[in-house]
From TrEMBL:
It catalyses: N-(5-phospho-beta-D-ribosyl)anthranilate = 1-(2-carboxyphenylamino)-1-deoxy-D-ribulose 5-phosphate. HAMAP family: PRAI. GO terms for biological process: L-tryptophan biosynthetic process. GO terms for molecular function: phosphoribosylanthranilate isomerase activity. Pathway: Amino-acid biosynthesis; L-tryptophan biosynthesis; L-tryptophan from chorismate: step 3/5. This is N-(5'-phosphoribosyl)anthranilate isomerase. It comes from Glaciihabitans arcticus. Belongs to the TrpF family. Residues 9-198 form the N-(5'phosphoribosyl) anthranilate isomerase (PRAI) domain. It is an enzyme of class 5 (isomerase). InterPro entries: Aldolase_TIM, PRAI_dom, RibuloseP-bd_barrel, TrpF_fam. It holds the Pfam family PRAI. The keyword Amino-acid biosynthesis applies. Its EC number is 5.3.1.24.
Amino acid sequence: MTGAVTPFIKICGLRTPEIVDTCVALGVDAVGFVFAPKSPRYIAPADARVLVSRIPPSVEAVGVFQSEPVDSIVAELAQAGIGTAQLHGDYSRDDVAALEAAGLRVIRARSVSSFVSEEPVPGRVLIDGDHPGSGAEFPAALLAGRALPEGWILAGGLTPENVARRVREFGASGVDVSSGVESERGVKSAALIEAFVAAARASG
Ligand SMILES: O=C(O)c1ccccc1N[C@@H]1O[C@H](COP(=O)(O)O)[C@@H](O)[C@H]1O
């Protein structure tokens, strides 16, 4: 017995009922819906609501935002029926507090560059490469010797092939993937999601 813990697994950028059902059947911890209008994975909040209705309470539904004002985030999440906001971009402590005061949970995404150069932020932290949703990895050396927040989630260029190694390399408590489980940009693959989840679980 190793005592190792299976990482928290989030699959991001869902847009179809089939892929939602695949994620639920695999027992992932969280699924993400991208509300950043320029993303190839963008889904309108009303369309996301239909997909969210298929998700049991045991799976956390997350709305992903990039530089969207707090008021819009609150409105869009209410429309989609989602209780967690994942924030990419420049959000202050007051922004996070306002979202929490609105009854939302927050995942604060930090680009690896801002994580190493700026003040720590409170709450659940996700560390990503500098280009969210691009599928690009960042070097482990960038975080070497850094104090990493409890329960932090690793993102950025994860794939079924590299996820176990990356989790061990970084000591991450969770993983989030989008590009690495797509057959083409913006199109999720059930087979790749299954392979990713198996590989992530094998890292624990
Ligand atoms: O997926 C997107 O298109 C996206 C757009 C804007 C902000 C965040 C986005 N996704 C998040 O990006 C990371 C890493 O994704 P990848 O696996 O490297 O493609 C992940 O946290 C997604 O939730």
